[in-house]
Amino acid sequence: MADFPLRLTSADYARVMPLAAGQVRVEGIALDLVLGRDGSWPLRAQMLSRALSDPDVQGGEGSMGQHVRRVAAGDRSHVALPVFLLRGFLHRDLYVRKGGAVRTPADLAGRKVGMYSWFASGSIWYRQAQADMGVPVDQVEWVIGDIETAAPADPAGLPAHARPAPAGRAVADLLAAGEIDAMWSPPRPRLYHPLNGPIVRLLPDFRPVERDYWDRFRFWPAMHLLIVRRAAWEAHPRMGRALVDAFNASDAQCEASQLGFPVATPWLEAELEETGLLMGQGYGRHGVEANRAMLDLFCATAFELGLTARRVTVEEYFAEYLAAGGV
Hints:
Strand order of the largest sheet: 8-7-6-9-5-10
Number of strands: 11
Radius of gyration: 20 Å
CATH architecture of the largest domain: 3-Layer(aba) Sandwich
CATH class of the largest domain: Alpha Beta
Number of domains: 2
Largest sheet: 6 strands, mixed
CATH topology of the largest domain: D-Maltodextrin-Binding Protein, domain 2
Helix content: 25-40%
Strand content: 15-25%
């Protein structure tokens, strides 16, 4: 029997390259990965959009935040697989104006804080991290808009303590001008420079803070996962476990390559050793059970923020995958 053809989108993450190059195979599936390039954030957004609606693909990289809202609303048009394509610790993404009034996380209380989206996966984690640092969501005035462009934010669904950015203004420009006090942003803004600003990190030595987060929560937060359209899933429901296994194998091959030839940066070898001692090997492992604590907190936070009308369980989120024997 011929392998099931499956075309999926993804940004050009190093961990998917063994799969994209055919060095790792997916059992029973002829996988074609459509990749972004250059680590581009706009192309990453394009990959997410194509996964949802492009008829030339059957799914791909998707937003965890979008999917939890679909599940809560009873929309099962897409099947979520516990392949977490994008992960990242959070505290490095908190930016302030150099010389501004915000110098510690506690200074955020009562201030204006910019963010790129109210509903995106990363923004859910940012608010969880901010609350964990002692400044709950409702203690700041949120300004929502694109970080680098003047694209207007949709005011629908924003609570009383959040508003769209002014028309024609990018959030990073508002921060540089002192019109807001801080900003959470996944891409490094163009105006950022670690020494010369005008935008700098609030926590320039972010590794100790993020290590503490790991020590207390024991997970590496995920923002994007793999989604497959229902028609493709129903045509080959055995794909779930096969894809999780293959992406785990791709991760392992990527990690082995980095450890064997750690030449991407001069001191990558030291960083890899330090990370391995702290987090162990396989800290980005895919699957439901390996990520249950993270998934449970993500769903709980989405509900507490009012992004879902009810609390979605991990079993609901991955209902199809678990019913097909996934773990």
